[in-house]
Amino acid sequence: MTASLNTPVQEPVKAVSRVELAFTRLKKIPSAYIAFWVVCLICLLAILSALGVPLSPYSFDQATDDLLVAPSLNHIMGTDELGRDLFARVIYGSRLSIAIGFVTAGVAFILGTTYGAISGYCGGKVDTLLMRGVDIAYSLPDLLVMILVGVLVGKGTFGILFALGLVSWMGTARLVRAQLLQLKEEEFIEAARAAGQDGFSIVMKHLLPNAMGPIIVALTFTVPSAILSESTLSFIGLGLSAPECSWGTLASDGWRSLRSYPHLLGFPSLFIFLTVLSFNCLGDGLRDVLDPRTRLFKG
Amino acid sequence: MLALLIKRMLTAIPVLLVVATLTFFLMRLVPGGPFDADKNLPPAIVANLNAKYQLDKPVAQQYVTYLSRVVRGDLGISYKYLNRTVRDILGEAMPVSLQLGFTALVLAILIGVPLGTIAAVNRGSWIDVTAMFLSTAGISVPGFVIGAFLIFIFGVWLKVLPVALWETPWHMVLPSLTLAFSPAAYLARLTRASVLEVLEKDWVRTARSKGLSRWATVIKHTLRNALVPVVTVLGPLTAILITGSFVVEYLYAIPGMGRFFVTAVTNRDYDLIMGTTLVFAALLIVTNAIVDVAYQILDPRMKVEG
Predict the structure, then answer these.
(1) Between the CA of residue A200 and those of A118, A172, A193, A203, A209, what are the distances in Å?
(2) pLDDT of residue A296
(3) Model pTM score
(4) Strand-pair partners of B85
(5) B123-136, pLDDT tens digit by residue?
(6) Which of A106, A291, B229, B241 lies at a 20 to 30 A Cα distance from A194?
(7) Which of A219, A216, A221 is nearest to A108 (CA)?
(8) If you average pLDDT over residues A200-214, what whole number do you get?
């Protein structure tokens, strides 16, 4: 007792927000930290390109006299059969590919969270019914559903977004439901209910904020899988096609001349790979950092 | 065990019905019919064709007719491949796809499980880091990039392997490898996590303290338990393989179900789309039923709710 009186008054510990804390932890995982900055860089490229900032000496649809040249100092990624600079096109394509990834994640977040929250909070028969529906849809291969639905809505950007959104929310719904089923048994929920809060505000104020970690992790994996799905669909000719320009359509165009001009497939593929890899590494890191079910550090 | 299997098969019927219904109405909602793309047919001929295939009837009536035909085992005829029934086409395409899928599955297990195990046993070492980087990279590469890469190296550059069609065993090498790539990476990640968990169990420590060597412990006491979750992903794995088959069969021009599905969708070949989708769904249901049964055999503590 007396000893504590003599010790100098401790500085109050600075409050660290959850985001700051997560970021500090993320820094300790090198692969995730590098991936974080690569993701930022690629998103920045996409945003700048969408704002019309000229990032390359040529514009994406400018035909030059150099047809199908291999990568050189003049055209660092070469040109296509109309003499268009591939670097300019890949940068231009990034905005569609990245946008598709993020919009899909947004749709998955809104639809999946709502559906999962209703199912998890209500429980009982509602839960059984809602989840059986998800089980059936979930058991079909995504691409099968996307092809069928994508054809229905049309081949444009909206069609592919609709198809991607339709298959991507189910994982989030399952996750949110599982989290809520677990969380709603906690004592602080009982306390909130005793204090007279209604179901909606309990879900919004107490249940969802506590489930945010795993949700963010799941959404981080939704972005790359949407980018992969878009490029795959476009590649087999059932997704976007010219005049739309995404990494998928560029790769699809490049496939036809693989034998003679491998750079046309190579560079768009490289960008798809780097982006998806970065998102996956970031997701792995975030899972270690945010998901309470995995142990943070060894020991 | 048998009761569970029968129960699973019975629940398959409503699922297949839901799938059939959804697909049927989705397809009819799609603008455009099977004869639109044909070289500017006169309207009278299109009308005749529609009448011949009963496409002029109300959709609800077509639906009932279709279901009653399917129940009797008649999957209809293709509108694009002249004089061929959907059954004929699927009868030829299915063995090809199953062969491709099964080879890829075996390859994926042979690559993925050892890779994951080695990574887990050497946790934190450079072997682990490399193996995990490879498998994260593996799930990040689109299938068509792997395929194009393999075609370029072995077909165009080295000219040692055929890059299209499905004839000799040599034709199977590149497609199977392409299809196996992403499931192998997926399995490696899963096996690593699962083995890591089991390695911390008490019985593993006991086995080690008895004086068993490290690898004997891993093979005899760890892997058997660690492989239970790996077996359960066989369902999702089949889904991955089906998805992959769309791309791989397109890339290598293989006459399998994936390619017929993709072309059927483009052609609005209604009955062929329906037939392929139903076969895919049935394939998944059967795999999942087998997994449930295998799960109980492997781990008698698990009581799967039917």
Answers:
(1) 10, 19, 11, 5, 13
(2) 42
(3) 0.86
(4) B77
(5) 889 999 999 999 99
(6) A291
(7) A219
(8) 88
The C-alpha of B148 sits at a distance from chain A's nearest C-alpha, in angstroms, of 8
Residue B136 is nearest to which of A235, A236, A280, comparing CB atoms?
A280
pLDDT band at residue A79 under the 50/70/90 scheme: confident
Interval B253-284: pLDDT, tens: 899 999 999 888 888 888 888 899 889 888 88
pLDDT digits (tens, 9 = 90+) for A240-268: 877 888 899 999 888 888 878 888 898 99
Interchain contact, A273 vs B142, CB within 8 Å: yes
Q: Tens of pLDDT along B156-195?
A: 888 888 888 888 888 888 999 999 999 999 999 999 988 9
Whether the CB-CB separation of A68 and A75 falls below 8 Å is answered with: no
Q: Distance (Å, rounded) from C-alpha B21 to C-alpha B67? A: 9
Peptide bond into A30 cis (omega under 30): no
Query: For residues B224 and B207, what is the distance between their CA atoms, to the nearest angstrom?
Result: 14
Q: Provide the token pair at A143.
A: 């691409």
Residue to test with chain A: of B25, B136, B150, B152, most A Cβ within 10 A: B136
Whether the complex's predicted ipTM is more than 0.90 is answered with: no
Rounded CA gap, B121 and B127, in Å?
Answer: 10
DSSP string, B29-92: HSSS-TTSSSTT--HHHHHHHHHHTTTTS-HHHHHHHHHHHHHTT---B-SSSTT-BHHHHHHH
- Angstrom distance (rounded) from CA B162 to CA A227: 30
Contacts of B285 (CB under 8 A, 6+ apart): A139, B8, B12, B15, B16
Tell me how far apart the alpha carbons of residues B73 and B76 are, in angstroms, rounded to a whole number.
Answer: 9
Of B259, B242, B241, B237, give the one whose Cα is nearest residue B250. B259
Residue of A nearest to B242 (CA): A141
Residue A61's contacts (CB-CB under 8 Å, 6 or more residues apart) are: A84
- CA distances, B186 to each of A29, A34, B10, B182, B199 (Å): 21, 22, 31, 6, 20
Cα–Cα dist B137/B101, whole Å? 22
